[in-house]
Amino acid sequence: MRLRKLAHSVYKTQYHIVWPTKIQTKKTLNSGVRAYLRIKLQEVRKYYPDWEYVETGIGDNHVHIHIIIPPKYAVSMAVETVKKNTSRALRQKFQFLDNVYWDRKGIWSKGYFVSTVGINEQIIKNYVARQEKEDAGQAELEIN
User: Fold this and answer.
1) What is the pLDDT of residue 129?
2) Would you say the C-alpha torsion 92, 96, 101, 103 has a positive or negative sign?
3) Residue 125 covered by a domain
4) pTM of structure
5) For position 12, what pLDDT does the model report?
6) Residue 85 is part of a domain; what is its CATH number?
7) Is there a domain that residue 135 lies in?
8) Contact 79, 114 (CB under 8 A)
9) Closest listed residue to residue 54, CA positions, set 90, 2, 5
């Protein structure tokens, strides 16, 4: 397991985030839309290179991402950024979405589900035991 390091923190803040489309009964995320959505998700990382997608799953009417976000960002800000940018891009590329989502307020529902993805207690104990070396800049960030 790889931990990340900022100037004053070591972190592995992982989240499982799910958000649906506004209309659950329509299967608007067809294979072409899914492929383009994956491209757009990666483009968001151009502006936030310290965000890492561990896994991405796209269903017919919802998106799952397992993402690592540094603690300097709020999860709500990350979700808002991803949803806003992908919704705009998908509507520009796929005109049929304007017919389905005619109100011009985006294709994603307002809410989302988020859950943290934890690490086990032994990893935390190992980190604490190695903290002295960590502060001196001598320890590796691989803590098993």
Assistant:
1) 67
2) positive
3) no
4) 0.78
5) 83
6) 3.30.70.1290
7) no
8) yes
9) 2
Residue 35 falls inside a structural domain: yes
Q: What is the pLDDT of residue 48?
A: 95
Residue 28 pLDDT grade (very low, low, confident, very high; cuts 50, 70, 90): confident
Kindly give the pairing relationship between strand 14-20 and strand 113-117. Answer: antiparallel
Question: Which residues form the domain of 89?
Answer: 9-118
Q: Note whether residue 42 is domain-resident.
A: yes
pLDDT of amino acid 107:
86
Which residue matches tokens 């590796």?
140
Count structural domains, the chain. 1
pLDDT of the residue at 72: 92
